[in-house]
From TrEMBL:
Its EC number is 2.3.1.30. Its main location: cytoplasm. This is Serine acetyltransferase. NCBIfam families: cysE, EPS_EpsC. Belongs to the transferase hexapeptide repeat family.
Amino acid sequence: MTFIGGIKEDLDNALAHDPAARNRLEVALTYPGVHAVWGHRISYFLWRKNLKLIARIHANAVRFTTGVEIHPAAIIGRRFFIDHGMGVVIGATTIIGDDVMMYHDVTLGAKSNVQGKRHPTIENNVVIGTGARIIGDITIGHGARISANVVITKDIPAQSTLESSEFFVI
């Protein structure tokens, strides 16, 4: 995918997921979740080129302007959409697949400070509701739907739907 093709894909993805989005120009100019993903792509590029300090500084600037904190080492697939964005935190060893949608105030965090993989893996086609906390080196399976305000610390099977009133994992 070309750089311009990726931008167009992100804009079209936002239009497909947000009924309030009216056109590409509006999304490009006013959607902080889209800006955070674009900023992450730059930070990730710098990180992979071993310009780690510059990548961290850039990521902090993106966090300051969008309210979304994504570590430059996090691996994010295509068509990732963060709706509203404010308060999202994505840790360093997080892996996010393609076609994932996330709402505001979500944490993909660690539960220890050991070396190695310590953040979640989110497979393709997952929706993560507002305020969800997904913590540790766990996997959220393909097509899962995570309700708002749940805390998840164990693997979730593919195609699962987790409602906040019925599911709270510690």
